[in-house]
């Protein structure tokens, strides 16, 4: 798969990931090398001082950079090998947007970056990640394949 079909398959893969049952979020891949994740922060995501826990920052920023990079890699799932996160201010309840973009890389290692902003456009965090190719074929992942293709493959 390539282009729009690949990006649509990655959006399905994101939506079906079990971790996302814990977070109300939506991924879109508007172009190759670019991602956008909309997320709603709720009080259950807060630390003891009443703002979003660092796990929210990491998940949103890592996912945004990851999917921006994986939108350019259509044969295998990539893996995060390192991620540098800069939290700039506390995040209260409400909507956030993480935007990711491919920076560089070829063959095996890739770099992506991402920003996290509030609904009014205030940046609250940014991150840079290093990603590598895995041996996991995207075509083997149920969430990546369309349901009708999966049923044809398994003889349903």
Give descriptors for this structure.
156 residues, 6 strands, disordered C terminus, 3 helices, Thiol Ester Dehydrase, Chain A, 6-stranded antiparallel sheet, alpha+beta
Task: Give the arrangement of secondary structure elements.
Blueprint: H1 3-16, E1 25-31, E2 34-41, H2 54-70, E3 76-87, E4 94-106, E5 109-118, E6 123-137, H3 147-154
Describe this structure in words.
The chain is an alpha+beta fold. It has one domain (3-150): Thiol Ester Dehydrase, Chain A (Roll). Helices cover 25% and strands 42% of the residues. The protein is built from 3 helices and 6 strands, in the order H-E-E-H-E-E-E-E-H. It has helices spanning 3-16, 54-70, 147-154, and strands spanning 25-31, 34-41, 76-87, 94-106, 109-118, 123-137. It has a 6-stranded antiparallel sheet with strand order 1-2-4-5-6-3. The longest helix has 17 residues, at 54-70. It is globular and about 45 Å long. InterPro entries: Thioestr_dom (IPR006683). Residues 50-124 form the Thioesterase domain.
């Amino acid at each position: 798969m390539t282009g729009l079909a690949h990006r649509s398959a990655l959006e399905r893969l994101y939506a079906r990931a079990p971790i996302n049952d814990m977070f109300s979020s939506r991924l879109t891949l508007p172009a190759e090398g670019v991602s956008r994740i909309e997320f709603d922060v709720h009080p259950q995501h807060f630390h003891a001082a009443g703002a979003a826990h660092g796990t929210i920052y990491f998940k949103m920023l890592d996912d945004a950079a990851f999917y921006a990079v994986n939108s350019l890699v259509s044969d295998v799932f990539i893996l995060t090998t390192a991620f540098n996160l800069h939290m700039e201010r506390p995040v209260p309840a409400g909507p956030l947007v993480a935007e990711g973009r491919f920076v560089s890389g070829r063959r095996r290692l890739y770099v992506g970056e991402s920003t996290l902003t509030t609904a009014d456009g205030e940046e609250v965090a940014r991150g840079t990640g290093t990603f590598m190719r895995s041996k996991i074929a995207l075509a083997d992942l149920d969430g990546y394949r369309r349901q009708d293709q999966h049923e044809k493959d398994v003889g349903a």
